[in-house]
Amino acid sequence: MAEYYIGLMSGTSMDGIDVALVDLQNPQPALVCARTLAWPENLQQQLTQIVDHPSSVSLQALGQLDAATGEAFAAAANAMIQESGIAAKAIRAIGSHGQTLFHAPDNTPSFTTQCGDPNRIAEITGITTVADFRRRDIAAGGQGAPLVPAFHQAVFSAPGQARAIVNIGGMANLTLLPGDETPVIGFDSGPGNVLMDSWCRKHTNQPYDKNGDWAAQGTCQPALLDCLLEHPFLKQAPPKSTGREMFHPGWLDEQLDRLPEKPEAVDVQRTLLEFTATTICEALETHAGNTGQLLVCGGGAHNTRLMQNLSVRLDGIETTSTEAFGIHPDWVEAVAFAWLAQQTLQGKPGNLPAVTGASHPVVLGAIYPG
Ligand SMILES: Nc1ncnc2c1ncn2[C@@H]1O[C@H](COP(=O)(O)OP(=O)(O)OP(=O)(O)O)[C@@H](O)[C@H]1O
Ligand SMILES: [Mg+2]
After folding, report:
1. Nearest alpha carbon, ligand 1 atom 19
2. Ligand 1: which of 13, 201, 273 to mutate, most ligand atoms within 8 Å of CB?
3. Domain 157-325 fold
4. In the chain, where does the domain assigned CATH 3.30.420.40 lie?
5. Closest-lying ligand to the alpha carbon of 193?
6. What is the predicted pLDDT for the residue at 196?
7. pLDDT band at 103 (very low <50, low <70, confident <90, very high)
């Protein structure tokens, strides 16, 4: 019998709300339908404002934003249910990641903050909602991220095959599946699209560099690339996770100010693409030199230039989209949060302590009954 779940995801790019309706009755998830729904425009602006300028926001504004974001998530889930033709009561649960506002796993005390009130999602949809996945892992001494490696292991691992999964969203995160009894490794490798997006928005007024076409017209600036590669996060050993708190437009401006001459905007875009590719490849070489296949997901999988760049650098490693392994790259993260909700309802852990650094496996999230 079908086990329908909905996964709701909005990552650091804040490009839209990904909704995936999936049947999880078998170990291999069966996607029923999926869509990215646009954020209400004023809400997207407010979320960007608070993420880019965290200290500019009042408690009242924060409370309103949490409520409005929860309502937007609920509306996205309801739209998906209507489109699917599946009755709401047939859906076991919604797994909602929430919108990350601040991720500080190395603060004392460590914390991570997502908004999008799950009470409202449960109330408006009438469906049991599982949310707040990251904080239990943080409470157990982990980074609270990345949480997708357990899902990657469940759906993409194969005995005897050393595979890596890279999700190129706002940030990029890697999962290394050894294909034997050794533990799965997973961590953020650094920025994915976030710096390319902000630079592109500033100079071309486009939300992102479609297919990497603009970057392709530029030339990599080694002096800038070296400055970017000096970021201490990149040398840090896992477990590690990052976000817009570390890699943001202001940090890029600081690196540009270190150069004797300002490069052309198009050359900066090209260098940012090389930066993302270099950090992914160096992380792979350092931690999984024997990888035979690289499966790519997240919006970055659509960046043709970035994909070509990775394939050329990773000579000898077969680089493909996760689509060849059963899940379209746009929906891996949303399906993962549907799967994590199922884990929670079944009382099973969702974290991998070897990945997050938590002291033990924990059942993630809180349950808001429908
Ligand atoms: N055709 C394309 N060409 C180039 N880049 C693209 C294309 N389509 C999507 N992208 C990039 O993908 C980004 C969105 O990716 P995605 O939704 O995976 O990120 P996210 O929401 O930040 O998720 P997360 O951080 O949780 O992984 C866009 O902001 C853009 O940079
Ligand atoms: Mg997205």
Report:
1. 169
2. 13
3. Nucleotidyltransferase; domain 5 (3.30.420)
4. 4-146+330-368, 157-325
5. 1
6. 98
7. very high
Residues contacting ligand 1 via CB (< 6 Å): 10-13, 15, 167, 169-171, 193, 197, 208-212, 298-300, 302-303, 333
Q: Where does 16-57 show beta strands of DSSP type E?
A: 17-23, 30-37
Among 281, 305, 295, 283, smallest CA distance to 329 is for 295
Contact between residue 21 and residue 30 where contact means Cβ atoms under 8 Å apart: no
pLDDT digits (tens, 9 = 90+) for 179-222: 999 999 999 999 999 999 999 999 999 999 999 999 999 999 99
What's the mean per-residue pLDDT of the chain? 97
Quick check: 282 and 234 in contact, CB under 8 A? yes
Q: Looking at residues 97-125, what average pLDDT do you find?
A: 97
* pLDDT at residue 42 is higher than 90: yes
Cα(19) to centroid(ligand 2), Å: 10
Among 48, 193, 206, 308, the mutation site with the greatest number of ligand 1 atoms within 8 A of its Cβ is 193
Per the listing, tokens 């996964």 go with: 7
Which residue has the CA at smallest separation from atom 5 of ligand 1?
303
Whether 257 and 168 have beta carbons less than 8 Å apart is answered as no
For domain 4-146+330-368, the CATH architecture is: 2-Layer Sandwich (3.30)
Q: In this predicted structure, what is the pLDDT of residue 288? A: 85
CA distance 59 to 218: 44
pLDDT value, residue 289: 80
**The pLDDT of residue 174 is above 90:** yes
Distance from the CA of 44 to the center of ligand 2, in angstroms?
12
Distances (CA, A) of 355 to 59, 97, 308: 33, 18, 28
Give the pLDDT of residue 200: 98
